Amino acid sequence: MREMMAADVPDDYILATGQTGIVNLDDPGPKQGDWRDYLAGVAVALASDGCQVRGFSGVLASTVPVAAGLSSSAALELACAWALSGTSPPTPDGRSL
């Protein structure tokens, strides 16, 4: 089973939300109703486009206000595409992403 750790944070790191999560890349399962759905959707879309998807551990930090109409979800999806692609850029061109 391949898993992606969406937030693997040391105890001394302060998060505004304190949320952590795991997404199974082989079977994302039903929607969770939160930010993990964006990660799962990007992973599924990349895999269906023939891209190799790799798990990662990371921390999401942003100054983009959530739900403020400033494309915070699009920014999250693009960051996920890069992270899921490992050390090389995602295979699809930037416009396709």
Question: Briefly, what is this?
Answer:
By secondary structure, the chain is mainly alpha-helical. It is 27% helix and 6% strand. It has a two-stranded antiparallel sheet.
Please tell me about this protein's structure.
- The chain has 97 residues and is mainly α.
- Helix content is 27%, strand content 6%.
- A two-stranded antiparallel sheet has the order 1-2.
Shape: globular
Question: Which class best fits the helix and strand makeup?
Answer: mainly alpha
Distance between the termini: 26 Å
Q: Helix tally? A: 2
Residues in β-strands, percent: 5-15%
Q: Which residues form runs of ≥5 with pLDDT under 50?
A: 1-7, 9-14
The overall pLDDT average reads 75
Radius of gyration, in angstroms, nearest whole number: 13 Å
Order of helices and strands: EEHH
Describe the strand arrangement of the main beta sheet, using strand numbers. Answer: 1-2
As a percent range, the share of helical residues equals 25-40%
Biggest sheet statistics:
2 strands, antiparallel
The number of distinct β-strands equals 2
Write the layout of secondary structure elements.
Blueprint: E1 3-5, E2 22-24, H1 36-48, H2 72-84
Antiparallel strand pairs: 1-2
Helix pairs in contact: 1-2
For the structure shown, list the relevant keywords.
97 residues; disordered N terminus; 2 helices; mainly alpha; two-stranded antiparallel ribbon
